[in-house]
Amino acid sequence: MTLMTEQTSNALPAADPPAGGPPTASVPTADPPATAAPAAPQAAPIAQAGSSHARTIAVAEHAAVTIEHVAVGVEIEHLNAYYGQHLVLRDITLSVRPNSVTAIIGPSGCGKSTLIRCLNRMHEVTPGARVEGQVRLDGDPIYAPGVDPVVVRQRIGMVFQRPNPFPTMSIFDNVVAGLKLAGIRDRALLEQVAERSLRRAALWDEVHDKLHAPGGALSGGQQQRLCIARAIAVEPEVILMDEPASALDPMSTLRIEELIDALRTSYTIVIVTHNMQQAARVSDRTAFLTVGEDRAGYLVEEGPTAQIFTNPRRRLTEDYISGRFG
């Protein structure tokens, strides 16, 4: 394996000419065939495109993978989200700071999950869904013409409400699925990334001796940590978590919260939660959304978590935090 240094660019990679239909997801549904012919050398599709800085990449056969990792911020500007003609989010403007945890709270139906799906262009996968406004990743507009949504989803990973490991894949193959999709076949490199990701997800000690067992055979809490390991294997800059502990028991929830606390030093994290105590425990900043008379969600206020929970600026926020509605 050869090591070399390359200079990053600020621009997000452009998409290939559209072939019709919705954007493709950034994870495979099965392992690529082992006999597939190697692709021609190209820039790493999981390369970070943040502020210009030297980065070390490992070249294995015909593929490259980023070693250095940098967390970045996200700017949301006057975002409107629609399902068909129905407005579900209205005029959201919000800053997500690098290397921090931002919690999004609010009553059911206010568009919390829709908001984070807009941050990595998963919203538009739904037929008829669209957005207006702007989302910037480290200054780069992710909805600009020609930006490849698959690359956006590699830079902004997502962990869903219910654990969703690929059921026919082993623990190992679950973790490295994104790398294999990117064309990486070097076994030593895949093993290195799998171990590093499982350690970061606080799962290595529990599964290191059964990496070839099915991912679906793990407990619910272990499956969710496996999904987090899969998300961070491609070295995203931002991790979105949509109620990651809502389907877990209290002990598994504690492990997820401890993991979030550990990951904030390397990643920018946005978490949706209905659990007020969880938001207070894990987040640095909190954004409160609610539903307007037009049935669209809107941002009431955002600020440091301690201030939102002890001295909110808006009476509506205080009513929600204190349990008067929601």
Describe the structure.
- The strands form three sheets. A six-stranded mixed beta sheet has the order 9-10-11-6-12-13, with helices on both faces. Strands 5-4-7-8 form a four-stranded antiparallel beta sheet, covered by helices on one side. A three-stranded antiparallel beta sheet has the order 1-2-3, with no helix packed on it.
- Residues 1-10 and 16-67 have low confidence and may be disordered.
- Helices cover 28% and strands 25% of the residues.
- The chain has eleven helices and 13 strands.
- With 326 residues, the chain is an alpha/beta fold.
Highlighted features:
alpha/beta, six-stranded mixed sheet, four-stranded antiparallel sheet, 11 helices, 28% helix, 25% strand, globular, disordered N terminus
- How are the strands of the biggest sheet laid out side by side? 9-10-11-6-12-13
Give the beta-strand count.
Answer: 13
- Beta strand %: 25-35%
The largest sheet is:
6 strands, mixed
Computed Rg: 20 Å
Q: What portion of residues is helical?
A: 25-40%
**Structure class:** alpha/beta
Q: How many DSSP helices? A: 11
Distance between the termini: 55 Å
What series of H and E elements makes up the topology?
EEEEEEHEEHEHHHHHEHEHEEHH
Residue windows where pLDDT falls under 50 for at least 5 positions: 1-10, 16-67
Mean pLDDT: 83
Molecular shape = globular
